[in-house]
Amino acid sequence: MSVFSESLKAKIESFLTRYETRRSAILPVLHAIQDETGWVSDAQIEELHHKYGLDRVHVKEVITFYDIYKDHPVRKYQIRYCKNLTCHMLGAQDAICKIKDRIKALDAQLGEDGPFSLEEFPCLGKCDGAPVMLINKERIEHATADKIDSILSKYAPLPK
Amino acid sequence: MAEQKPKIILQTEGLPDQHSLKTYVEKVNGYTAARKVLGGMSREQVIEEVKQAGLRGRGGAGFLTGLKWSFVPKDITGPKYLICNNDESEPGTFKDRYLCITNPHQVIEGMIIAAYAIGANKGYIYTRWEYQEEIRYLENAIKEAYDAGLLGKNLFGSGFDFDLDHYTGAGAYICGEETGLISSLEGKKGQPKVKPPFPAVSGYLSRPTIVNNTETLANVPWIINNGAKAFRQFGTEKSPGTKLFSISGALNKPGVYEVPLGYPFASLLNIEAGGMQPGRTLKALIPGGASAPVLTPAECEGLTMDFEAMAQRNTMLGSGAVMVIDDRQSMAELLKVTIEFFAHESCGQCTPCREGTGWLNNIMDGIMDRSAKPDNIARLGSVARNMGGKTICALSDACAMPVMSYVQKFSGELQAYLAAGSGGHSK
């Protein structure tokens, strides 16, 4: 019995032989897992360890080192908002406050299972579109506070 | 009236399907340089041409590319590797991102030539995770090149094999440091390694490895096609060629612009970037990414965009990340953003960096909530002065340098912010 889907198993297998060493497959394997299941669970790490020969210590050190990997359940829409210099200069903090307000209101309405999470992110590399954010993998530019409601409401209904 | 500017890197910019193999081959003679190299140039000739051109690394350090290549041992057997550093994580930098969606094939062609020069049969492009759209462009370009026989076995009938793969990072600034990148590519935490040995001797999997920035590699086909002498027509004596500048802030046209090195900052700001937004004036300038010491408007007088002019002003050209700070900004807030970034991104190996960035961040928190004592501003400077030159990689210095410049040049504003919150709190 596997914790991985058939398609994910096929992806993992292909990464294991794609690089010079098996260990180099850890990052791509974790990306593939997160693309399908959102985060990396202990059960998944154990299966990587026992069935695919990726040492659990090596896997965990990668998960904890890199910002992108999550070892806990994630919400449906992960917002990563850039708070670095140019985004800061062009209104990131106001937009972040607005997003926090909206998440708080949604969570109050829905309980702990609101659709959005927010991570203030070190840098997204799109300073000419500042302020900028990602919702999952989609990049949204010029995401100033006044546009937050219209942006978020495309993903999930907001409280009145 | 803007002077005529050469295009060495963004040759396909603005053409229909600018990123496609077809456009690169048919409109700008793409892959003719690789054909020329594999058709009869020796490795030494290729390295010599790039050395003569004076091409300097475009990722930040400005090291001579041809010289770096020459450090790979020639008589060694077994695999060697070429890595394109497309991690581009210095805040303010987005030029490699733009290059990837504009002219990805020139990067690939540059890699074929560089790989031949150092004797590598395998290459990787390492891109930061945040560049999802750009990764699709790169993977598509690699596939196009394979389908056309431009990658793989026996390229151009020369007997030279070169395989190229793409690898995606996972959100870590430190992986832009070449040995941190190598650690990451090995499937490990992106922690830098002690040098020497340098990667050219012992890099990826302890094999000889050259790591070059994306833009650096994209210069190579043009140099091969047009010669070192032609390349030196542009730029300055010590900084030849053109450079991609990422310019951002409250500007009319922020973006990526290719101009000759030595180009006046005033022209880059007012012509390429369309000037400041109405009603805003220049308060300060970060000329080369978050780790570059900040300049005052007086220091920007007569400033040219090259390695030497920046060094004269005790700052850096870095990766060409120009961040324009306007009069509405608070220098205290920007310093806090800068310090917090480096404290978050320190990989934790070296004490002066791990602790130093943390201390700076704690002191800065006290300044932001106005609980700090007035002498804490000078303490920022003294902590920073003890962080330089003591660590495995340059991240510690990259944090210390801007901190010292803010304390030196804007201490009045920092004091005022601490005293009364009158430091130009934005909005």
Number of strands of chain B: 10
Rg on CA atoms of chain B, Å: 22 Å
Number of helices of chain B: 17
Low-confidence parts of chain B lasting 5 or more residues at pLDDT below 50?
422-427
Q: What is the CATH architecture descriptor of the largest domain in chain A? A: 3-Layer(aba) Sandwich
Radius of gyration of chain A: 18 Å
Give the CATH superfamily of the largest domain in chain B: NADH-ubiquinone oxidoreductase 51kDa subunit
The SS-based structural class of chain B is alpha/beta
Largest sheet strand order of chain A: 2-1-3-4
- Structural class label of chain A: alpha+beta
Low-confidence stretches of chain A: none
Mean pLDDT reading of chain B: 95
The level 1 CATH classification of the largest domain in chain B is Alpha Beta
Reported for the largest beta sheet of chain A, the result is: 4 strands, mixed
Percent helix among the residues of chain B?
Answer: 40-55%
CATH hierarchy class name of the largest domain in chain A: Alpha Beta
Strand content of chain B: 5-15%
Largest interface: A-B, 42 and 57 residues
**Which fold name corresponds to the CATH topology of the largest domain in chain B?**
Rossmann fold
Instruction: State the end-to-end CA separation of chain B.
Output: 36 Å
